[in-house]
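Take a record.
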Amino acid sequence: AELTLPLPITNKAPSQLVLNLRALVNNLQVTQEVGVGVNGQQPLQYSLTNNDHNQIAIPINAKVLADGYIQIVFDLPTAKRPKDIGIGDDERLLSIGLVDAVFR
């Protein structure tokens, strides 16, 4: 999965992008491991353990500021089918859901 956002035009450059995420977790799938690569850089690794309100703060460095946009590439190695972990009949391979993204 991939997300590209232009940086906001403000008097002060943002220092981070905070993602609020849902995660497909339950007693059979206790974490979702998420790799987050930014503008072609080495991915940062996160473990999400809550269904809702998982926050990831992605630092915005000089390269991102110079590019004028942030491109996020998600690596989702623990994605599961809800059906396989006892959550209904959904056969889609799922991991996370983006609720919102805020530049700070």
In short: The chain has one helix and seven strands. The CA atoms of residues 48 and 76 lie 11 Å apart. The chain has a mean pLDDT of 97. The first strand starts at residue 2 and ends at 6.
